[in-house]
Structure formats: structure tokens, C-alpha cells
Amino acid sequence: MDSNFEKAKVVVVGDSGVGKTSLIHLIAHQEILKNPSWTIGCTVDVKLHEYKDGTSHHKTCFLEFFDIGGNIGHRSSAKIFHQGADGIILVHDLTNRKSQDNLNQWIADIMEQNEKLSIGISDYQYETKLSPGKKSSTKKANSYIDYHDNSNLLPLFFIGTKLDQAQMVRNSSFLKAQSQIASFYRSDEINLDCMQTKYLAPATSNSIKLAKFFDRVLENKFSK
Amino acid sequence: MSFFSDSCLVFLSEFIFFIGGWIFFMKELFKNYEVQYKTVIFSFSITFSLSCIMFELIIFEILGFLDPSSRLFHWKLGLYSILFLLVFYLPFQISYLIVRNFEFIRSKRVALIVSCVLWLAILILFWKIGDPFPILSPKHGILSIEQCVSRVGVIGVTVMAFLSGFGAVNCPYTYMSYFVKIALNERNSMYNTAEQSGFWSRFKTAIKSSSQNSEVKREIIGLEEMARQLFLELVDLNRTLDRISFSKTLQGKYFNFVGHFFSIYCIWKIFISSINIIFDRVGKVDPVTRSIEIVVGYLGLKFDVQFWSQNISFLVVGIIVVTSIRGFLITLTKFFYAISSSHSSNIIVLCLAQIMGMYFVSSVLLMRMNVPAQYRVIITQVLGDLQFNFYHRWFDVIFLVSALSSIGFLYLAHQQKQIAEKHNNLFTMLDLYQDHKKSNGKNSKQHEAAILYPAFVRAHLEFASAVWNS
């Protein structure tokens, strides 16, 4: 299927109920999703992104967001959507610390499907499922790391949701500091509330970080 | 043994169960959630430890361990505490958390008042439950402990019988590879027939008709719905694949073997319950004494009845206790994962703690039937003079109803799956998708839908062939 625009696939993962569907709706359509319902399988949203806006290499590209339902029972079947990913957005809930810890398992699942790629420098150990009927075993993330070859890098981006609810419960210093997992994977992150458009308004630092991430995704895609 | 040392022992074991309940909560139930209210874990662990203590006291009763008077004291203490928890404390906590979840109630004082009102309503409901049942003899006063125990017993017995009935039908269905093979054969025959039903001709006309925006939008919505159905089928296929490969391992073969015996036991149980109800039979002698009588009477073996009766009842009661606790906790975990979300996790876990308490209290009640007469005395003494026969009859009724409705439900679900699969013929869909691709031009929304299908169709085909080949 030929098209005038280049495209890249961004996979959006996270635990069930963290707000991935509302988030993607906000990013792609700049409006708030009124009645989000449970995502079964995968929903796709599309955004036109101005790659390297203002430079000579300027291109308009498609970004396909694959919003994958985080239901625990569907997790092994959802692996079919992870293939061919060009970038990963990891969403966690700021009111629930466990959703952040579970992101390591999501990263492991995705890397299992994209074995030729690496995700940057990390020392974190995670578990991966080897075969049905067998208990999971640990596998070092180092096996996916290639320190020298940057051509097959898969960019990661972390987004923390439900900022307004978290601000009522936690102290602000915790929320302003970089989260543990983002520093582990040396990736960018933003914290926001999907129910207010002000967090991703143009020219805010959040939208600039997001645009830089999209540029990196497309850059990696074109350099392959 | 003095009263003091006995009490130390009992409290130590209570503490151990408390820690066990805490660990279970943190590692299994709340694996994906952060604990916001420490009181929730506390209530859950306390309920769990008090229930386990009651079982432990029965076992001590049979073994003759500890002083009888201290045993009686701890029985009463444990029973009163668990009743206090189940009737007063847990409902209050549940109503408070429900009220806190409402967004329009901001101040704590208002929340407290509203939750008190809700709590009183729950208490009144609880009281009213006891009215239609003939569970008390008239000589008991209004505020006696028997009132509470009887009502808790009714609710607990209902839950127990419902779960047993469903389990008695579901276990054989799950573990028998026989059923899996039938499902496999049906699936194979499904993919071999190429049928076109009315649904597909409508689909074709919808694609060819127009390129206007609203029509396309409707088409997208229809396609997305189909994508969801396909995905759910994929999940199902994956599970079947897992089940098949599991049944090939050693553990799977063992479960298969045990499953045969277990299904025979379940069928016998259903049969016996119906006999009990039809003939209005009330068992007087427990299975242990009856089997010993048979052994002594018919086989003429002479052995120390007292000694063997004690040991066998200990074994039987021990097995019942361990399997019911384990089975209940596993069911609890599965149920919790299925229905919880980040908002409601606290409330659901407290409701489950309440059900657990009631379930275990009524297990003690019903266990009276399974132990010889000399051990029944303590249960009768502690729980008061309830109409135990009523509870057994009620259990049989609910068990039968639950088993029959589960059979009906599983059969209906099976039929539905067969009908649905006839419509979702993979090969027809693949052809239609390729026609669609060739005939349409560029449009970003259609682009969206077209992305989904290769992944689904390809994966569906892969798994179907895996199922064929295994």
C-alpha cells in the first residue's frame, strides 16, 4: 500500500486502567476522551507529525499509536501487536506504584518480539515466559544491549498519568523528581493528567519532550 | 498443661496465621496495586487468622490436645471475635470506603455520617435475612449469640453450596482431556467447511457501496468491533493451546488421572443431594463411624475402634480443612483478578474478606456432620443449639440448584461458541480483505483499519495451524 507519507509504529503499553486510551486520544486529537471504555485487544490512532519542523529535512509523517489493552488474561495473546515497533511509550499510574514496577515486564515482552533491537543501557533483571507449562525464568536485560551499534535502538518514553489525583496523595518533590524507571533506562518522561488539555498544549515542555521523542523514533526509522 | 501455656500456644498460632494472611495478600491478591489503606490488609489478615484458628481448634479437639476448659474458652473467644468482625467491623469499613469513593462528598465528617447510615442499613438487611428461615428454636432471646451465628451460617452455607456446585461441574470439565479433544475436533471441522451466511453478504455490500465520510466511519466501527471479537477468539485459542501442552506434561497427566476420580465423586455427590431432598433423609451417623462399622461388621476385622476412629476423623477433617482453605483462596484470587480495578480494589478485597469469614464459619458448622458423635459436642456447645439439620438440607438444595444451573450454563456457552464460529470463517474473510485492499484508495482512516487486519488474520491462521498440528 503506497502512501505519500512515511509512517512509524509506536506501541503504547502499561497496566490495565492507567489511562492509555485517554492519553492517546489526547495526543492524536488534542481533545479529551469523554467515555473511555476498556480496551480489548488493540486500538489504533493516527497522528500527523511534523518531522524536524523548521529545518531543511522537514517531512510530514504518520505516527501509528498501537494502544494495547493491559488486561492480564490477554497479555500473552497481545504479543502479536508488539512486532515491528519503532518506539515504545510506557504509561504508568502515579497513584499506584506497582504499575511502574510492572513496566519492566512489558518491556521484556516487547523485546521478546523485537529481538533484533536493543533498548539502551540498563542493568535490570526481568522475567520472561519461555514455554507454556513451564514457570518463568529470569533473563538479564543485558542480552538486548548493544553498546556500540546505535542503529537498532528502540526509543523509550515514560508517561505518568493521573497527576491531579497523585498531587493530593503524595508530596510534590516526589512528583518533580525523575522516576526510578526512567533513570534506569535513561529515557525521557513526563507526568500529566489526561483529562486536561493544558498539559499537552503547544510549546509546553511536555509537548516539546514528546515531539523530540517522535523525532527520534522517525530518525531511527529512516536511518535503517 | 496449664491455661496460660495453652493460651500462649493458641495466640502464637494465631500470630503465625496472621502473618500468613498478610503475605498472601501482598504477594497474590494485591500484586498489581499499591496499598493505600493499611487497615484493609489488617482486617483481611485478622479474618483469615481467626478462621484458621477455629479449624485448628477442631483438630485439637479430635486429637485431645490441650485442656478441655481452655479449648472451650478459646473457642468462645475466637467465635465472638470473628462474629464481631463479620457483623460490625467489616461492614462499617466497607461502607466507609464506598462513601469515600463518591466524588461529591469531600469532607471527612460528612463521609463518616453517611457511612454510619449505610452501615445501619446493612445491619438491618442482615437481620431481615434470618426471618424466612426456621433456624432458631423459640427459647432463644433476641440478643443472643445464636441469632448472629444462625444468620452468618445461612449466608455462609449458601456461598459454600453455590461454589461447591459450580466447582463440582467445572472441575471435570476443565481437567478432562476428553473434553479438550472434543473441542479440538469441533474446531477442525469448523475450518474445513466454507460457508457463506447472510452476515457476509451484508459485509460485502457495505465495502463496495461508498466512499463518503459517514459511511466509512460506520464501516470502521463495524470493523473495529470485529477486530475485538477476533482478538477474543485468539485469546481463547491461546488458552486451548496452553491447556493442551499442559496436559502433555507430567503434572498435567496426573491432574487428568485425578480428574477422572474427582468427576465420579462429583456425580455421586449430585446424586446423593437429590436423594436427600427427595426422600427427606437426615443422616445421623457420620461417614467415618459408618465405614468403621462396615469394616468391623462385614469384614470381621477386630481392631481398636476408638483409636482408629480418632485417627481417621483427624485425617478426614484435616484434608477437608486444608483443601477447602486452599481451594477458597485460589478461587478468591481468580475472582479478584477478574473484577478488580484500581478504584474498587480495596472495597472488593474487604467484601471478599467478609465472604471468607462467613464461609469458614459455616464450614465449621457443616463439619459437625463429618465427625463422630463425641466430637460434635464441642461444636454444639459453642455454637449453641441451632437447627443443624436445616443447614444440611439448605446446603443440599443450593448445591443441586447451583450444579444444575452450571451444567445448563456451560452447555449454552458451548452452543453459542459453535454458532459464532460458523459465522467467522477465516478464509472468506481473508478473500474479502484482499478485495477491499485492491479496490480502495488512500484515506487515513481506512489506512488505520487496514493495519489491524494483517496482524489479526496472520496470527489467527498461525494459531489455528498450531492447534491442527498438535
Automatic annotation (TrEMBL), chain A:
Q: Which Gene3D superfamilies did the record assign? A: P-loop containing nucleotide triphosphate hydrolases
- Respond yes or no to whether keyword Nucleotide-binding is given for this record: yes
- Any one GO molecular-function label of the UniProt entry: GTP binding
Q: Which UniProt keywords apply?
A: GTP-binding, Nucleotide-binding
Keyword field contains Repeat = no
Cross-referenced Pfam families: Roc
- The name this protein carries in UniProt is Rab 3
Species the sequence originates in: Brachionus plicatilis (Marine rotifer)
UniProtKB/TrEMBL annotation, chain B:
Write the record's keywords in alphabetical order, separated by commas.
Membrane, Transmembrane, Transmembrane helix
Q: Which family does it belong to?
A: Belongs to the Golgi pH regulator (TC 1.A.38) family.
Q: Per UniProt, what is the membrane topology? A: Multi-pass membrane protein
What is the recorded name of this protein? Golgi pH regulator
Q: Which organism is it from?
A: Brachionus plicatilis (Marine rotifer)
**Main subcellular localization, coarse class?**
membrane
Which terms under GO biological process does the entry name? intracellular pH reduction
Membrane-crossing ranges are 12-30, 42-66, 78-98, 110-129, 149-169, 254-279, 312-335, 347-367, 394-413
Mention one GO molecular function.
voltage-gated monoatomic anion channel activity
Keyword check for Transmembrane: yes
Task: Enumerate the subcellular locations listed in this protein's record, separating them with semicolons.
Answer: Membrane
What's in the GO CC field? Golgi cisterna membrane
Tell me which domain of life the UniProt entry assigns to the organism this sequence originates from: Eukaryota
Annotated Abscisic acid G-protein coupled receptor-like domain ranges read 247-414
Classification from the root reads: Eukaryota, Metazoa, Spiralia, Gnathifera, Rotifera
